[in-house]
Amino acid sequence: MSARILVVDDEDIVIKSCMRILDGGGYQIESAHDGREALQKVEDGSYDIMIVDIMMPNIGGLEVLRRVKEAYPNVDVIMITGLSQIDTAVQAMKLGAFDYISKPFEPDELKLVVQRALERRQLLQENLSLKSEVSSKYRFENIIGSSPQMQAVYRLVAQCAPTNSTVLLTGESGTGKEVIARAIHYNSLRKDKPFCAVDCNSLSENLLESELFGHAKGAFTGAIANKKGMFEVAGSGSLFLDEIGNFSLGIQAKMLRVLQEREYRPVGDTRTLTANFRLITATNKDLKAMVAAGTFRDDLFYRINIFPIHVPALRERKDDIPALAYHFLKVFSADLGKKVTDISEGAISALVNYDWPGNVRELENAMHRAAILTGDHVIRQAHLVTIIDPAHAHADLAVPRTGDELKRVKKAAREKSVEEIEKQFVLEALKRNEWNVTKSAEDTGMQRPNFQALMKKYTIRVRDTQHDGGDEAPDAS
After folding, report:
1. Cβ proximity of 228 and 216 under 8 Å
2. Where are the alpha helices (DSSP H) in 340-380?
3. DSSP H/E element including 456
4. Domain range for 127
5. Cα separation of 216 and 26, whole Å?
6. Helices (H) and strands (E) in the chain, counts
7. Burial class for 219, CB neighbours closer than 10 Å (0-12, 13-18, 19+)
8. What pTM, to 2 d.p., does this model score?
9. Would you say residue 137 lies in a domain?
10. What sign does the dihedral 374-375-379-382 (CA atoms) show?
11. Is residue 136 part of a domain?
């Protein structure tokens, strides 16, 4: 939909000039000749931008601006000023004007400021849409899992989310602790504030301190500029510290002080900043055992263990596996551009009977791989050979009732075995050679056209895979 613009000026020549300059931009442009008419039009209709002269009889431009921003804060107002009205223009900016232009103005100047206003509106709308989408994604009903174990987790999340309490999430790696942390944030009073996540497992002590506290320019070698830490970036939002059990004793002491005093100093800085974030932490370690061993401070443990939530391992909630599998299948089918919609009974049985040491993350990866491997719309047990015994990869084939059916099933089983070997042959060759088709063909001793033919047979496309380079097989799709 094209933007609606209202030009407000008591001089007809200015109105006509603005309309002529903006003509051809695809805008719906209307005009008003004084402030009273402008306010009536704004009340009767919806406008994206107003271009308002400051000096007008009866109701002046500043009063129009003030009333519009009070009643319709999303309308962007651009003021037109005279050269002697710069102080008034500054006052207009304080009242919420988007920008101002001085008479006489160049056509490109007006076009540019209108374009900037529309670009900002679009960015704000995209941000609002993204926030809404993210918030919707982390509603309780949109998190996969209806097992009693997960229902217990949801109840705890619902209880703590509206509060400012510090939360400690425990559970094995890959169980979805960050998803739960985001659900707490996006169902809290801070949902419109930032959610900042820090992986404490991937940073050294010095880097972690800088990441959390920030640092001043020159604080250490390589500190070429001031850097905001995550305490400051999180502001009055939520800070998620993943794997807090990896904190050194030194970082633990400094973290404890932040939680006690709600103040901190960036590394190498003399300023004292206020910490106003809500803390959510997670760990896959036994912090009580670490406290007993002296590797985790007991006073910090008591500070972060105010509201503990244990996230169960996937093997403890196997009822959720089918729903999770279908969820991931839907996601990866869309990503790969393939219509894979079903999972065979044998494949479901294999998924449910597996213990998933890597938890939900491992299931996600398994479904991604299976979606790549399948040649039709069904995920079968044969596509899950990385997690089940290959000798039982065809357990979901129909049991024959007659001799002729037995022959057909045996033939199908042989063909499936050959197909799986061929697929693995191609995929492993591509992986070894960084998804470069020419190098993969040479590595296997095959002619490139023959190698591409196998890729095409199993719908293996280089662009479907995550790779950094290499040539793509144009006819392998």
Report:
1. no
2. 345-353, 359-373
3. helix 448-457
4. 4-131
5. 48
6. 18, 16
7. middle
8. 0.58
9. no
10. negative
11. no
